[in-house]
Structures are given as structure tokens and as C-alpha cells.
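Recap from last week: sequence in, structure out.
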Amino acid sequence: MNQPSKASTCQTLSIDDQAVKSVLGQTPLPTSFHKISPLFGDTGEPTADCYINRDLSTLRFQLRVLAQATNPRYPLLERMFFLTIFSSNMDEFFEIRVAGLIQKMKNGDVSSSLDGRKPSELLAEISQVAHRAVEEQYRILNDNILPELAQHDIRYLKRHELTPAQKAWMKTYFFEQVMPVLTPISIDPAHPFPRLVNKSLNFIVSLEGKDAFGRDLSLAIVPAPRSLPRVIRLPDELTDGKEHHIMLSAVIHEHVGELFLGMKVKGCHQFRLTRNADLDLSDDVDDIAKALEGELGNRRFGHKVRLEVTTNCPKELYQLLLREFELDESQLYRVNGPVNLTRMLTSFDKPELKFAPFNHATPKVFLGKESMFDVIGRSDVLVHHPFSAFNPVVNMLWQAGADPDVLAIKQTIYRSGVNSDVVKALAQAARNGKEVTAVIELRARFDEASNIAVANMLQDAGAIVVYGVVGYKTHAKLMLIVRRENGKIRRYAHLGTGNYHAGNAKAYTDYGLFTAHEEMCADVAGVFGQLTGMGRPLPSRQIMHAPFTLHGGLSQLIDQEINHAKAGKKARIILKCNAVTEQGIINKLYEASCAGVQIDLIVRSICCLRPQVKGLSENIKVRSIVGRFLEHTRVYYFYNNGDEKLYCSSADLMDRNLLHRVEVAYPILDKTLFTQIYEDGLINYLNDNMQAWELDGRGEWHQVAHSEPVHDAQAVLLDKICGDIR
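Predicted C-alpha cells:
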């Protein structure tokens, strides 16, 4: 098979010169790693210095996302999209990872990370890097994105930039649309500081004078209801049809005095508080759904972890907020713009400033008049999202629901959405009398409420709904259809690397395999039996299944490559996934490298393995692709002395996926599809020299220099699968 080209060379940074150099280049992340010595401890295991910290690796991925906001090859609104995605990602990073470290520090500040850092040490490093990154984010916004938007008549107007007519319109808007839903809260002995919702927009207002009751008030809080839009487009007649907007914060700031008649407003400043949003759900609950519903309310009011204020907020006010929230100045972020850039993204009628649309291709075998069961019954079919359409997945469910020969449908649901066509098809199938079983993972982070609603909807339609296994999230992506054909039972399956979510399938790269392979379908049926019933796991003939056989199976495949290398034979491993954090697999890869196995890792985000370290990992290369689409495929390839093995999987190489979740890795048995995934999903990405970053032994990421011939892996797939229909 083809090998990766050697056209790529590595450089420190090449995106827009100064754009993120202060974060990624000239001021590298703090690290205790200079020279690993010794590599191995007394037990023969790698020492703590042989690992990159998971949280710092996560943060570095966010910086690679931020770098996309400066990519000159991207249309302007797409660059703005990456800027807002960085905000959203950082929110979750603070809500989950930073919040967890704070809790660990309070519980004893004892290291639990592979690299041996204490939570307090990590928090200090994270704060240092995050402050630089946020400062750079707003510099990109103010110096690059906003001026370029203005050149295209898209503007976010400040109050002093409004014409008299626009100011008059804004005043009317305030009185009619904003003021009726505002609730100013004075701060005095009778009105203690309000309990503010996680990530809500608020204003602290300094006052002078007496209120209607004769009280001397100096401070008030004005929460901005989430029902109000944060970005408001001015009427076309006031802007000559141009896309000019004002922020809600400007509207409230301009007219906040109307909330405190008879008093003087000395200052009004926006702020936002971030809280711990992780759910605390024990494994011994009696009813997962009820327990989750109770915990979802607590998420809005978890422990405080971060305070954001604007740069013009006076010191005495932000210090007051810090004291009130029991935060220190390392948790304060002063920003030169709106405190939540995520809410700046709106719908602009500027297609020329976005990526060109493309038609998601449907496999030709599904375009005829044959039923999908006839097609799949002859041979396996592969879809590669988002280049391939998601419709075949939905169509298979609709066909199954209407087919008189179909007896049962079983489906896992991790993220789908209440309005999902997948859910609608399952509900209709149940109403049609099919035996529909849905294994719904209620604990999919930030989709818990949606999944509870999906569960209720399917139950109302007559489907059997189960919530998987307590203590083990069901993350496997499986569909099984049982059909009677000529008096015999035949099963059809769909196995995926991504969620059954149409929106994700348009933005994430994922594989989906349709198969009627008897052993594969029997294995899938066994997984469903374990999820819905009781008893010991049945042996699988084709798939590897976490938490039972996946970790051991991958280790055994790596061991085989080690043995081949030691015997002087060719040994090769290529692994593509979102994250590599599990110590056992990392150590096994180190062992393979020392034995001479050539290893390439294509890791989208987190990597705790240190590549290219002499005596440890000099035969391991790690790269990351950050592009138009979110890389989400998990593909595991082993040369196996010429009897090559390739698996697609729902699992990343993380502790939680391999040991604490229900996951599946499934082999690609069809030779044509095997070659397709190997070339398109692996070698294609190893050849990328436009969107790729490479990891060095110090834990630093470097952008791969653009060189000739140019190779953009995602663009190659758009052309190959979608052709000229973009």
C-alpha cells in the first residue's frame, strides 16, 4: 500500500506570522521537561517525566483551534467561527477540567496525573497560558476579524458610533423589548448578592443617591435574561441595508439609568461567572433519569472557577466581585470586548465569506430501487461523513420500520437531539409494531436533558428504553435490525465511529459501516444483550468490546508488532483517534518503539505520549489535523506481518473509553473498504502539509510547513468523494 510522502517539513509557526506566536511560538508552555533522565524507574516502567500532562495537552489543542482564526486560507466568517469555538471550548475546559483540579486541590492537592504534577501546580500553569491565550484571542478579534468584517459592511457598532436615528431606535428597543424583562437587584442588607447562573451575562452598576425608600445605595446587579438576543441587527432603513449590529450589553449600558430613576449611575460594567458544570452522580442511584434531572439544576449553580470582566472595569469593582465569589486574581480574566464571544456569532447573509457549500454524496449502491437490505446483504457498504450523506442511516431505519419482514430494531443513542430523524424513525417503527429497543446514554455531557426528552418520546411511542449499565457510559455507536427472510432470521448492522446526530455528521469526520456479516452482527447482538440484560459477556468473534476485550485486544495487536520487529520483520502501526491518555497503551507503544516498530499517531486533541525521545519513542511520530471539519474518526491499523488488520472504533485511547465505557472496535473485512480507509483515512492524513501540526518530545506542537506539492487531506476527500459538486 502507499506510504506517506516526505514533502512535509516542520516549522514552529506559519499562520499569520504574529497571530498566535506569543502563545504558541516565542513563549512556549511551561514544562519541567528538558531531558528525560532516567527514562525508566526501578520497576522498569517509564518515569513520570515520560508523559505529557493531559490538561496542558488539552489546552494546547485549544490553542491550535485558536490558530485557525488567523488562517488566511479560510473565509472571514469561518475564521470568526473558530474564534467563537475557542471561547466555547475554553468554557467547557474551565467548567470541567479546571473545576476538577480545584476540587482535587481542596481535597489534598495530591498528584493523580501521569506526569506527577500536583493540582495546584497545574492550575498555576493553566492560568498563565490561558491568560495569554485569551489576550491573544481578543487581539485577533479587534485587530483582524472586526476590521475585516467592517470592510464587508458587517459591523458591531459601539454606542458612540450610532447616528441620532439609530440611537432613537435603540432607545425604543430598550423600553419595548429589554426593560420589561430586566430585574435590577440592589446590594444591601435586605438584598444579599444574587445567586448568578453559570456563564450568564450580568452587569455590576455603581450608584449614587437615594432610592424610592430613601435608602443610600451604591451597588446593584442587573442580570441579562438568556431569552434576550446578545446581538441585535439594526433595521435596514437605518443602515442602508448593511449588516450593522449592536450588542445587548451596549443597549443595557446606554439606558441602565432608566432602571434607577432619581439616582446617578457612576459606572456599569459587564461580567460573567463560570461555575463547575460537572455532574456528581453516584453509581448506586435507584433511577438514573430522576437523579440526573435533579443534578441538572445544580449544574447552573456549581462552585465558581472563573470571573470575566471587561478591561475598563475599575479595580475596586472587580476586586469586590472576586471577594464575593471567593476567587483570586489568577482566576480573573479581563477582556477587551464582550465577555462571551460565543454569542457574537450570528447568521450573516454573506455566502462569499463562508466555505463553499457541497453536496454530501450518497453511495451509488443506495441510489437504485433495491431495498437497502438487498444491497447490504450482498456486500458491506461504507460511508465517510461529512463527505458522505447521513441519509442512508436514517433511510435504513425508515425502511425497517415499514418493512413487514422486519421484527426488531435495536439502537444506541449517545447524542441525537429531540428533533432527530433517527428518533422519529425509531418512534414510528415502534408505533408500526416493531420491537424497538433504544439504549440511551443519559449521561452524555451537556446532552443529558435532551436525552431524557428523547427517552420519554420513545417510551410514549411504545419503544423499550434502557439506560445502559450504571457506572459505564454506553458510547458505542450501534444499530441492529432483525429481519425474517425465507423463514430464517437475518441480521443487519450499522457500526459507527460517531454519534447518530445529523448535525454532527455534517461537521465531524466519521466512518459508518453497513454490514450483514453473520459473525459481526452476532457480536453486535451480544453487546445489546449485555446492555439490556444480565449475565456474563459472551465471547466475540470479530469485534473488540470495552470494557472487556478492547484494551487487551489492542495490547495484543501491539505485542504482535513487537514480536515481528524483534524477529527482523517489518512492523508498522498507524492509530488515528481524538486522544491518547491511557497509560497502559502508551507504555505498550513505548515498548514497541524501543523494539523498532514504526508508529504514526494521528491525534486530534490530547496526547500524553512524548514522541521522538531517544531510548523511549524515537520511532513514534505524532501529528494533529485541525481543519474545516472536526476530525473524529478512530482507526487502528496493524501491519501484522502482511496479514494487515484495520479496525474502526467508537473508542479513543483513553482510560474512560477503554476501561470505563461500553465501546466497540470493529474490523474492516471487505478488502476494497479496507484499502479505502487505509488510503483515505490514514495515509491521506499523514501526507497533509496544510492543516497538520507535529508534536515534539518536549510536548510542543509545531505547524507543518506548507510545501509543494500541496496536500490538504480534507480537501482531497471533498474532491474525491463529492467531486465537482461543491
